[in-house]
Amino acid sequence: MAHLAEADRDAYLASLTPGADIDHRGTSFTASLLDKLFEALRDPRTGKPQMGTAGFNRAEFSGDVWFGEAVFLYRASFSAACFLGDADFRKVHFSDNTDFFMARFSGAAMFSQAQFSGRAAFQGARFSERALFAWTRFDSEAGFHGANIAGAARFDLAQFSGAAGFRKTRFADEANFQETRFTVAPELGPLTCNGIVNFSGAVFEAPVTLAIAARQVLCERTRWESTATIRLRYARTDVSHAVLSAPVAITSHPARFTVRPGEAMDETLLSDCREEVQVTSIQGVDAAHLVLTDIDLSACLFAGAFHLDQLRLEGGTIFAPAPSGWHRRGIRLTRWTRRRTLAEEHHWRARNASQPAPSPIHPISSRQWRPGPYHPDPGLTPGPEDVAALYRQLRKAFEDGKNEPGAADFYYGEMEMRRHDRTGTPKGERRLLWGYWLLSGYGLRASRAMGWLGAAMLVTIVLLMGFGLPQDSPKQEAVGTVPQGGGKVTFQIDKDDPKNPTGNRFTGQRFEKALNVTLNSVVFRSSGQDLTTAGTYIEMTSRLLEPTLLALAALAVRGRIKR
What we know:
Layout (H helix, E strand, L loop, with lengths): L5 H10 L6 E2 L4 E2 L1 H10 L9 E2 L2 E2 L4 E2 L3 E2 L4 E2 L3 E2 L4 E2 L3 E2 L4 E2 L3 E2 L4 E2 L3 E2 L4 E2 L3 E2 L4 E2 L3 E2 L4 E2 L3 E2 L4 E2 L3 E2 L4 E2 L3 E2 L3 E3 L3 E2 L4 E2 L4 E12 L4 E2 L3 E11 L4 E2 L3 E6 L2 E3 L4 E2 L3 E5 L5 E3 L2 E2 L13 E4 L8 E4 L18 E3 L5 E2 L4 E4 L2 E4 L4 E2 L1 H10 L31 H17 L3 H17 L6 H14 L5 H23 L7 E6 L8 E6 L12 H15 L10 H29 L2
Parallel strand pairs: 1-4, 2-5, 3-7, 4-8, 5-9, 6-10, 7-11, 8-12, 9-13, 10-14, 11-15, 12-16, 13-17, 14-18, 15-19, 16-20, 17-21, 18-22, 19-23, 20-24, 21-25, 22-26, 23-27, 25-28, 26-28, 27-29, 28-30, 29-31, 30-32, 30-33, 31-34, 32-35, 33-38, 35-39, 39-40
Antiparallel strand pairs: 36-37, 41-44, 42-43, 45-46
Helix pairs in contact: 4-5, 5-6, 7-8, 7-9, 8-9
């Protein structure tokens, strides 16, 4: 039609009526020529262009084209069409199947508020700029398999009533699905995104499996009305305030997604990303329906979640470690023991230690507590009492999963927060916890208890050698009187009182005796050695303290190997 003489073209356009079938495969359209075509097809009652079966396969649209709320009564085909400028399909109604297979959009592709009553096929389409599908209705299947979108893709407030196919779809920028409704979507992906995939406020009404490789995935306030499996690669994920009506599993996929046997997804867009999948927040979520597998939770915020004791953690779950190395606190040197911690404890300790905020010049190292987001109202920031409650619930989740060694770190964290809680924990109880921590790390640090046991035994040996063992072993003497003329003789056997040592007290022989007394005290036995009065009291103290330290060490070992 572009090469017809003007009179012939006018004659052709005059022959068209609203709802007529048109076939313009391979035709080159300018914006003015497309306007003339639509004017000839405009329905005087509705004021909208109406077409029956429309064929635009391999057509070329130069400049910005606007389809002006057109209505396609039957099948519309734009396979391999080329749009050299912006393509405006806003508010267009496609009444039957629509085919944009391998179409190329050099400018923005705008389908906002469009309605696809039949199948919408965008397989292999290339979008060089933005692809806008906001408020769009897909009443049947929508296929974007193999599509490549270089600009931002917006599907917010769209509605997918049929299957939504995004297999092998590549988003070079963000993919926005905010408040989108998926009525029937058994599978979404696998897809790759170089930016953020945003499902905030979206609704999934049926069981679904999501397979996404992206830098970040947002699921804030997302509603899952049925079961869901979310398989991720690389992504930092936020599921705060999501509504889970059925079990939802978030898992880290170990290898590249496969599109078909022998063909893996292209992840060159994400080559600079770390492989660990992170969940950064589950605040406001009912964790009874949540399963996390092989997830990095080192920066995850748990405060505000419900039923944390029923959260299921499977596989190699990662939590934030305590700072490593020795640290100077005033005139004291301290060293944090290795354990798994929550992000809330990191934030609280960093705030109380007045650590500087991280910057490119001074980033946070592994020797520091990680500062985090602070609420403007200090009363709403989790304190020691709140963090202790989080540790307590997660400890129960580990125990219910028969992971006693994993629960030990959370018990340690709970006791630490109780020891630092100056409002909910009485002063006497804090002192008791301080002693429990000092002697054995709350019954979880066998090396600490054994160290104290060794020190107590050494002190006992030294005290016994210096004051407890007598100078010489008392000798028994028999005293009696022989009556005149013979007869029965009665002897009274007595022993001298032990004498306090004098002279050289630290000899090998005395060390052997002191060691014998001490070892018997550890197992709560009496050595039977003769001792001075001071030695008797030293042995009594040893028999009380040292078995307790040995029991604490055994308790710590038991806590680490229990199943």
